[in-house]
Amino acid sequence: MKKLFLLFISAVLITPCIAQETKASSKTKKEERKLRISAIAKQEEEGVIKHKKHTAFGLKLTTDGYGGFLEIARAQSVKRSLLFQLDIAERKHPKEEKTQYFSQFAFPTSPIIFGKLNFFYPVKIGVQQQFLLGNKGNKNGVSITGNFGGGLIAGLLRPYQIEVQTDSSVAYIKYDGNDTAQTFLNPAGYIRGPGLGKGWNQLKVTPGLYVKTALRFDFGKYNELVNAAEVGLTTEFYSKKIPQMVFNKEKQFFFSAYVCILFGKRK
């Protein structure tokens, strides 16, 4: 009992001390952070590059799809940087519409996009020049940069395959304009739409070029973390026309707008 009593008294006496030390430590860290931010702001105003590179991941919504990208940046000066980007997206045709069909057994199938020919995945690798347009993140916490650049595209086309019931069997088919055309465009035989694993062994690649321009609003300028929003425009040109939907005009030239968010780390 005496030991338990002594332990209890010790705990009562020590706990306030620990809490006080923790509070003091937290206060010290906040003060150190303020001093570091002020030092970084002063260095950038004097033309000293504090952060020489960053790595960031982005998620974006476009006017015709969605995607994500990886970015690695290298500072050239306080006001200029080079951005190296790998961008992967899925582009959808404006006429795409998912429809719930019923099979001949009267149960609903998974949604099918009538007349869709291919999934279209533009994979881009390129370089952008970034220019600082608005500084003074030490006052409002936001910097504004303008980005312009471009690069190469590999347009990946994965056949849109649907499972259908024919007179003799059940099979996954794609539109080929000949033997399967009538069956592919006949909803009465539909069983289900394409799975994630279908069509990859028949992947086709169409090369192209792209140009992109954007405005970026960085809310973490003086932090070690990148927290930014970006809006921009992208123009793409492919070596040949891209088949996306049956009975619709195929295009080589694509123009889209996008908005994205970025997260990353500076060094």
Which features does this protein show?
alpha+beta, eight-stranded antiparallel barrel, elongated
Q: In words, what does this structure look like?
A:
By secondary structure, the protein is α+β, with helices and mostly antiparallel strands. It has a single domain (52-266), classed as Porin, CATH 2.40.160. 19% of the residues lie in helices and 49% in strands. The protein contains 3 helices and 13 strands. The protein has helices at 2-45, 137-140, 181-184; strands at 53-62, 65-75, 80-91, 98-99, 112-113, 118-134, 143-159, 162-165, 170-173, 190-192, 204-218, 225-242, 251-266. The strands form 3 sheets. Strands 1-2-3-6-7-11-12-13 form an 8-stranded antiparallel β-barrel. A 3-stranded antiparallel beta sheet has the order 9-8-10, with no helix packed on it. A hairpin with a 6-residue loop joins strand 11 (204-218) and strand 12. It is elongated. The model has no long low-confidence stretch (mean pLDDT 82).
Element layout with pairings:
Blueprint: H1 2-45, E1 53-62, E2 65-75, E3 80-91, E4 98-99, E5 112-113, E6 118-134, H2 137-140, E7 143-159, E8 162-165, E9 170-173, H3 181-184, E10 190-192, E11 204-218, E12 225-242, E13 251-266
Antiparallel strand pairs: 1-2, 1-13, 2-3, 3-6, 4-5, 6-7, 7-11, 8-9, 8-10, 11-12, 12-13
Structure at a glance:
This protein is of the alpha+beta class and 267 residues long. The chain is built from three helices and 13 strands, in the order H-E-E-E-E-E-E-H-E-E-E-H-E-E-E-E.
